[in-house]
């Protein structure tokens, strides 16, 4: 390798010392597995006035990332909790809706079955609710009241309409459904992948990326450290200062040059 080293006073560029082209970046989140570094794939200082914000939606929402003007907004996923329900009976005055008091997907583990017996009743064994109705029939209103009385610590029952229609027939065991566990936020890896779908942005999560981000940013985060590079008309030309030698390892006579390297000399 033949290198031409010039004194810094013989430089051909405006900067104090040579510098490499860098794309602006910023970070959100925190921690070994929860920091997201976002690089804007745009040239030099042109992206330093871009910003990113993490927001928590008021209503249920999926994870999204959207660029409007020069602001990249990441909306966290929000799932609203819901209670599991099941119905027995039928008709405008004969349907009994049974709701699990605790919201969440765990409510879907309960079942309900209607059987005939001499005395009507409601018994919960582990996750199985068995309702006994007499063959002569019991009104939807009375069955709803029975459930609330006997197993009201776990369920709340209501009847449709007047509740005067009677339930007489057995009903096979059925599962409760519709229970949803609340969720807010996403892992750093999920957020990074979503940001990277936005044209012009590349996001990387630190470590495993498994740490979740669940809160909004308190203020918009600005992209910084973007800079243009020092042009180099030919490979292996360089300059030296009192502190470092600078060598350009490639010919790139543009402001997008990233071929500069610096070193010091040591005695041995």
List the topology elements:
Blueprint: E1 4-7, E2 25-29, E3 35-40, E4 51-55, E5 64-68, E6 71-75, E7 78-79, E8 85-89, E9 95-100, E10 111-116, E11 121-125, E12 128-133, E13 138-139, H1 140-150, E14 155-159, E15 166-167, E16 171-175, E17 183-184, E18 186-187, H2 188-195, E19 201-205, E20 212-213, E21 221-222, E22 237-240, E23 245-248, E24 260-263
Strand percentage lies at 35-45%
Q: SSE string, helix = H, strand = E?
A: EEEEEEEEEEEEEHEEEEEHEEEEEE
Note the gap between the termini: 22 Å
Mean pLDDT: 93
| Structural class determined from secondary elements | mainly beta
Number-wise, the strands total: 24
Question: What does the main sheet amount to?
Answer: 4 strands, mixed
**Radius of gyration over all CA atoms, rounded:** 34 Å
Low-confidence stretches: none
The spatial strand order of the largest sheet comes to: 1-22-23-24
Total helix count?
2
Q: What coarse outline follows from CA principal-axis ratios?
A: rod-shaped
Please, how many domains?
3
Helical fraction: under 10%
Overview of the structural elements:
This protein is 7% helix and 37% strand. By secondary structure, it is mainly beta. The strands form eight sheets. Strands 1-22-23-24 form a four-stranded mixed sheet, with no helix packed on it. A hairpin with a 2-residue loop joins β11 and β12.
Short note summarizing the structure:
This protein is mainly beta and 268 residues long. It has three domains: 1-19 and 228-268, no CATH class; 22-80 and 182-227; 85-175.
Tag the structure with descriptive keywords.
mainly beta; 3 domains; four-stranded mixed β-sheet; 24 strands; 7% helix; rod-shaped
């Amino acid at each position: 390798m033949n290198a031409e080293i010039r004194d810094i006073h013989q430089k051909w560029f405006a900067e104090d010392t040579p510098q490499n082209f860098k794309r602006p970046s910023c970070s959100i989140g925190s921690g070994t597995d929860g920091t997201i570094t976002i690089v804007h794939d745009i040239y030099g200082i042109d992206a330093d006035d871009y910003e990113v914000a993490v927001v928590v939606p008021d209503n249920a929402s999926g994870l999204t990332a959207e660029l409007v003007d020069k602001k990249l907004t990441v909306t966290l996923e929000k799932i609203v909790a819901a209670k599991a329900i099941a119905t027995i009976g039928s008709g405008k005055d004969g349907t009994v809706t049974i709701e699990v008091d605790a919201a969440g997907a765990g409510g879907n583990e309960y079942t309900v079955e209607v059987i005939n017996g001499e005395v009507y009743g409601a018994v919960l064994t582990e996750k199985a609710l068995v309702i006994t109705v007499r063959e002569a029939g019991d009104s939807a209103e009375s069955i709803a009241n029975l459930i609330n009385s006997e197993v009201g610590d776990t369920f709340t029952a209501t009847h449709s309409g007047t509740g005067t229609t009677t339930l007489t027939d057995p009903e096979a065991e059925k599962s409760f459904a519709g229970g949803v566990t609340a969720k807010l936020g996403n892992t750093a890896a999920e957020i990074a992948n979503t940001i990277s779908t936005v044209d012009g942005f590349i996001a990387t999560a630190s470590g495993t990326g498994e740490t979740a981000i669940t809160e909004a940013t308190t203020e918009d985060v600005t992209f910084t450290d973007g800079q243009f590079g020092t042009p180099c008309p030919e490979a292996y030309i360089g300059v030296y200062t009192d502190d470092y030698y600078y060598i350009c390892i490639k010919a790139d006579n543009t402001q997008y040059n990233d071929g500069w390297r610096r070193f010091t000399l040591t005695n041995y």
